Structure formats: structure tokens, C-alpha cells
Automatic annotation (TrEMBL):
Organism: Rhizobium alvei
Organism lineage string: Bacteria, Pseudomonadati, Pseudomonadota, Alphaproteobacteria, Hyphomicrobiales
Cofactor: Mn(2+)
InterPro entries: RtcB, RtcB-like, RtcB-like_sf
Pfam families on file: RtcB
Enzyme type, top EC level: ligase
Annotated protein name in UniProt: 3'-phosphate/5'-hydroxy nucleic acid ligase
Length: 473
């Protein structure tokens, strides 16, 4: 009779049943097939058993650097919520340090990294860079070009809203980037999407902003967007992979804070996938800038870019996760400059800052002005201020709000439907954010892009089929 190892044999040997049994049984029975003893087979099976689970850290075990102060009652509520969610997150076993930027605001249930949050960890946490991986800023300078001409050119070449470019109008990323996708197990099946969504900008708070340099008066284009559908697909896979490790290593850890151990095959592949997504996103920005230049028959004099939803590895071996926070430490990437872009709102200058590598910011600077209210709450508040009825803001309400908040600016919405949740009043007071950047020593402002106008997606869902009432026959 051929001897085999069964699941019951493992249980009888004192092993706790789990998903790992399947792999353990294959390996154990291979030992028997090769002439090994039952004792040898059980010893081999035991090597597949997960190690002891890691408990959550105690509250206050991890230092949280608070680079934010409340300027009014709304901000006090915001700061309390941001602090509470970061304290819960910091109990994750592999987290070593955390910081909160002046533009911080909650972005999910308690324990979810806030926008404007920085977390240093021994591992990679997909939930801490969010689905909008590598959301980033890029600037190009266009000498001798009028701002209106530049805005018109960008409007003619970019794409906002859902989906990508239709067949026949698609633009391919570089061969090197597509090759990196093909070679990575997390990205091999998103190549078609990577081509379809290339040279597009998404929706929400993403924008193409045109202004003039305060120092020279030259026209500048600044774009803000992330990795679109390719990044979202990678995020989904990363979260599933991280959750498998969470179930084995630390079931008490919140799902949003699950991690992928860096020294595993999954960790190495995911890290490589992040770098490929980063390169795709950088090319995505520059493709739009280059198409605008081509349309104008103009030359770009200077440009740089930087991301604020990403993971960076420092020489200390830790992974620094910036969710709405921009790296400001030396050598954070091979293509890094010492400058960062900090937008405030469409009616305010975009700050060009030099990072200070402040210890209290874990080497990061803010990425913008942030919000005190959710989009829905802000729209409701606008309705109360402008006398909207129970049906919400009317076209007249929206026209009045637009006229007040965008006076003197050329503000456009790609869908032709304004999105009032993205107007200046939706964001924190810009002067307060600037003051706090200086107060906490997070960055030094060296120049500004004075606003002329911008393009955003707008309310592209306004006339969506699911918003239309069914007509009865």
C-alpha cells in the first residue's frame, strides 16, 4: 500500500488547519515519493506553516509628527479626524513613523491614511498610495506663447473624463515602458488599457492649469493626474495580494493597511510594477505637454515633475508612503530635482517650492490645499448659501457661483458641465496653508505660477443614463 500524507495527518501532528495545507501536502507527499520517511514528510510540511501572527502596536508606540494647526472650528474638526485616523493606522505592526501635512483631510474610515499623510514602514502598503497611484504634477515653460493660446492648445489635445482615447486616436507609451509591463506579473494583462488611457487626465481634482511665471512672465502649463486605469488595476491586485499576507501575518490589521513583505517574490514584483507605473505616468504628463507644443509649433524651455501618491525607499531601508504628500528629501528618484509643485486652488498661484527635508515631515512637503469638507457636504453648503431648493443647485445658482469664484479666469470644463465641488471655496484657505508650510519648515517657495485659466473634467455624470428618470409609456 502506498503511503500518503493527509490533512488529518497534519492535524494529528499538531498543525493548525489553513489554506497553507494544500502546498504543505504537495511537498510532504513528494518527500514520500522520493523515499523519505513519514517523519521527514511531516517536517517538510511544517515548514509551510505560517509563523506567529503579529499583534497591533499599542497606541502612542509610533511618533506622529503633526504639521497642521486648526484656524477655525471647521478645521478643528478636520484636524481631530485626521489625528484619529493616523493614530489607528500607526498601530499597524510594521509601521515605524508617521507625519501629517498642513493640507491633510480624511479619506476613508478611521484607520485609513489621510490625504496629506506620510507613513514610514518596513513593508509596502498598497492602501497607502491609494488607487490613484503616482498622482503627480508636471510643469513645462513655453517662452513667447500667450496663455490663452496655450490653454486653447491643451484643450485641443487633452482628454478628461471616463475611458480612454478611441481606436485610431490612441497614442502609445514608450517601448521601454510597455516592455516593463509585459515582464511584470502584476501588469501583463493591462497593456491594452495602458495604451487606451495614455495621454488622458481623468476626472475629480485633476487639471490642466495655464499661468505665467511670477519671475519671468513666461507662460507655463501645469498638469495634475495619476496613472488612470493601469494604476487602478495594479492597486486592486496589490490589495488582494497584501490581504493574503495580512490574513497570515496579522489578522488584526485593518484591510486598508495590509502589506506586502518587501523580501518576497510578490514584494519584489510589486515594487517593480510601481516603478513601471511611475514611468507610464511621467510619460503620460509629458505626452500632453508635447502635443500642446506641437500644436503651437512652440518649444519647451524647461520642465520638471514630481509625484505625491507613491512609495519611496530611503537609505534606512524603510518604505515611505506619501498619500497626497510630495517627497522633499535628496535623491528621492533618479530624475528628481530639488523643486516641487504645490497647487492651492484654480484661483491661486501654483507654488514652486524647494523641499527642506524636514525631519518633522519625514522628508516630505504638502501637495496642495486639501479640503475641510467632502464634495457632497460642500455642494450642500453652497446650496444653503445660494437659496437652492430641495432639488439642489439650479443652473442659475451654478452660474452665480461660477461668476463669483472664477472672476477674471478662463475656467473650462471638458464635459461642458461645471463641477462646483472643485471651485476655490471647496478647498482650505490658501493663505493659511502657505503660512503653515513656512511655520513648520516644510518647503521654501522660490517662484509661483500666476493663474490665467484651467481645464477640468467637470460634472461628466450630469447626463449619465443612471441619473435620468425612466419615462413611463
Amino acid at each position: 500500500m502506498i503511503e500518503i500524507v493527509s490533512g488529518q495527518d497534519l492535524i494529528n501532528a499538531g498543525m493548525s488547519q489553513g489554506k497553507w495545507f494544500r502546498h504543505a501536502l504537495v511537498a510532504a507527499n513528494k518527500v514520500l515519493e522520493q523515499g523519505g520517511s513519514m517523519a521527514d514528510a511531516l517536517a517538510t510540511a511544517r515548514t509551510f506553516a505560517p509563523g506567529p501572527t503579529l499583534p497591533l502596536k499599542l497606541e502612542n508606540d509610533v511618533e506622529i509628527h503633526m504639521n497642521i494647526r486648526a484656524e477655525d472650528e471647521f478645521e478643528r474638526d478636520n484636524v481631530e479626524k485626521v489625528n484619529a485616523t493616523m493614530r489607528a493606522l500607526a498601530r499597524t505592526p510594521v509601521v515605524k513613523a508617521a507625519a501629517i501635512m498642513p493640507d491633510a483631510c480624511p479619506s476613508g474610515p478611521v484607520g485609513t491614511i489621510p490625504v496629506g499623510g506620510v507613513v514610514a514602514s518596513e513593508a509596502i502598503h498598497p492602501g497607502m498610495h491609494s488607487a490613484d497611484i503616482c498622482c503627480s504634477m508636471a510643469i513645462s515653460i513655453f517662452p513667447g506663447v500667450a496663455p490663452k493660446d496655450l490653454l486653447d492648445a491643451v484643450h485641443g489635445v487633452t482628454h478628461f473624463g471616463p475611458g480612454g482615447r478611441p481606436r485610431g486616436a490612441q497614442i502609445r507609451p514608450s517601448d521601454a515602458t510597455l516592455s516593463a509591463f509585459r515582464e511584470n506579473p502584476f501588469l501583463t494583462d493591462v497593456i491594452a488599457v495602458a495604451i487606451e488611457h495614455f495621454a488622458t487626465q481623468g476626472d475629480g481634482n485633476h487639471f490642466a492649469y495655464v499661468g505665467q511665471m511670477k519671475s519671468t512672465g513666461e507662460a507655463a502649463l501645469v498638469t495634475h493626474h495619476g496613472s488612470r486605469a493601469p494604476g487602478a488595476r495594479l492597486y486592486d491586485k496589490g490589495m488582494k495580494t497584501a490581504n493574503r499576507y495580512r490574513e497570515q501575518l496579522s489578522p488584526e490589521t485593518l484591510k486598508d493597511n495590509a502589506w506586502i513583505p518587501a523580501d518576497t517574490e510578490d514584494g519584489e514584483a510589486y515594487w517593480a510594477a510601481l516603478q513601471a507605473i511611475r514611468q507610464w505616468t511621467k510619460e503620460n504628463h509629458l505626452a500632453i505637454h508635447d502635443m500642446a507644443a506641437e500644436k503651437l509649433s512652440a518649444k519647451v524651455a524647461d520642465r520638471f515633475w514630481n509625484e505625491h501618491n507613491f512609495v519611496f525607499r530611503k537609505s534606512d531601508g524603510l518604505f515611505y508612503h506619501g498619500k497626497g504628500a510630495t517627497p522633499a528629501f535628496d535623491g528621492w528618484a533618479e530624475d528628481a530635482t530639488d523643486l516641487t509643485l504645490i497647487p492651492l486652488n484654480m484661483a491661486e498661484p501654483i507654488l514652486i517650492a524647494r523641499g527642506s527635508n524636514a525631519a518633522n515631515g519625514l522628508g516630505f512637503s504638502p501637495h496642495g490645499a486639501g479640503r475641510n469638507f467632502s464634495r457632497t457636504s460642500h455642494i450642500r453648503r453652497l446650496g444653503e448659501e445660494h437659496g437652492a431648493d430641495s432639488r439642489g443647485l439650479s443652473p442659475n445658482n451654478i452660474a452665480a457661483i461660477m461668476a463669483k469664484e472664477t472672476e477674471g479666469l478662463d475656467v473650462r470644463f471638458f464635459s461642458n458641465a461645471p463641477d462646483v465641488s472643485e471651485l476655490p471655496s471647496a478647498y482650505k484657505n490658501a493663505a493659511n496653508v502657505r503660512a503653515q508650510i513656512e511655520h513648520y519648515g516644510l518647503a521654501e517657495v522660490v517662484d509661483e505660477v500666476i493663474p490665467y485659466g484651467c481645464i477640468m473634467a467637470g460634472d461628466w455624470q450630469k447626463d449619465a443614463p443612471w441619473r435620468k428618470k425612466k419615462v413611463r409609456a
